Amino acid sequence: MSENQAAYPIATMCRLLGVSLSGYYAWTKRQPSRRAQTDAALLAEIRAAHEASRGTYGAPRIHADLAAKGIHIGRKRVARLMSAAGLAGVSRRKFVTTTVKDGGRQAPDLVNRNFTADLPNLLWVADITYIPTWTGFLYLAVVLDACSRRIVGWSMATTLATQLVVDALHMALLSRRPKAVIHHSDQGSQYTSIEFGHRCREAGVRPSMGSVGDAYDNAMCESFFATLECELLERRRFRTQAEARIAVFEFIEGFYNPRRRHSSIGYLSPIDYERLLDVKTPADPGAHQSAVVLAAVKDKPFGRPEERAVLDRPCARRPHARAGRDGRMAPPGAEQKNGTKQEDQMMLHQTP
Asked: pTM, whole model, 2 decimals?
């Protein structure tokens, strides 16, 4: 009636619609209900959370975002307000496999579809996907921690060479420095290559591989690629491979690892989940680890400290016996090669 009052009299429209004239004017002067005011405030928070997620979050993750801010409402109410405002999450699409099997030696399956880990750096999953651009494909290899869902290593290249997966593993090893971690992948030629196997042996990594043509044997990494497709690649078109590199880097390091909420870890981001577990990585040592780093310099200032030395306990610092240049221990009473001889001692006490 308010939109058509310029063309028709209000009294005529009220009579045709069966509404009293006084009731209409009372309605126009009435303030919105408390529920409507609360919905308007909630919708503003929902729009902000949806925009912060780059338009990818649906009602479950928006509900978790509001709960983290102290706004406790029902998830169905969030879904109703998002539907009324035309806000929605993004859906996933299928993608092309990049697994090419050759005659390389495969590793045993140490996972058996059990992608559970109580702590980080126990189980890593890895795979390769492609990113279409106007100038050709850009290939992405990732290493994902099964505990926190964090991307601990990644690499991009224009070809499916073995160096692609080696660089991703190298980044993960530098940032995490694990001990006897399981690296699970498919049986692609990159992972069965001699170069990749040699790098795993050097770092003490235990390679594991699933069966051929079964996405469930590497379902966790496939889930990340589905998220990448759904929330980034399906919504953008890249003119150059350099543009795709920047976008993927911003997605992984600027959104996925620090901010993207995962339903499997209590709607926390991977970094927040690792902080909840109080995990300290070598790239971000805690206060109790700084003494170890400083003690390594004090223990051996002119060289690299021994790996087996315990540096943070004074009781464990034993005096080192001196050895000769040939590596054999000097017999009792023998002179030190760099020490002052007895004749020189006597010469120093004599007066000229």
From this structure: 0.57
Question: Read out DSSP for 227-286?
Answer: HHHHHTGGG--BSSHHHHHHHHHHHIIIIITTT--BGGGTSB-HHHHHHHTT---TTS--
Helix/strand/coil percent split, the chain, to 5: 45, 10, 45
Q: Per the domain annotation, does 352 fall within a domain? A: no
User: What is the 8-class DSSP label of residue 339?
Assistant: S
What is the tens place of the pLDDT at every residue in 241-259? 999 999 999 999 999 999 9
In the chain, the number of structural domains is 3
pLDDT band at 281 (very low <50, low <70, confident <90, very high): low
Domain-located, residue 109: no
Domain membership of residue 293 (yes or no) is yes
pLDDT at residue 101 greater than cutoff 80: no
Q: Are residues 262 and 193 in the same domain?
A: yes
Total Cβ atoms within 10 A of residue 5: 10
